[in-house]
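Re: the request from the purification team.
They wanted to know what the chain is likely to look like in 3D before they choose a buffer screen. I agreed to run a prediction and write the result into the notebook, where they can find it.
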Amino acid sequence: MAMGLLLVEDDPMIGESMLEALRGERYAVDWVRDGVAAELSMRQDIYDLLVLDLGLPQRLGMDVLRRLRAQGGQTPVLIVTERDAGAGPGMGPRRPAGVRVRTIAGLAAAVVVGLPQHHL
């Protein structure tokens, strides 16, 4: 059975590229384009990984993550953003407990595809 990922990315070009790459590696991927849709999807389906952009319309990605954790959600999250790790709204000293920030060159798809399935 394929690993289930929820991709939350509002940029069509980035989202389509990541969706194609992840599906090409045989992940089962659902793609939504805003924070409210992400929360609805997380309530309706069980995912093995949430690939989350921070700069989303309707609800910022970090707010989605905070709400997920406040509701007891334990789904692993890979944050994808063009922002500096410590700058901008939604980041900085108010990160939810347990969130580690790393700057990674390349697309999240490359990172997820490079991980053995048991690490997800």
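For the purification team: The domain at 4-119 is CATH 3.40.50.2300 (Rossmann fold).
Please add any questions underneath this entry.
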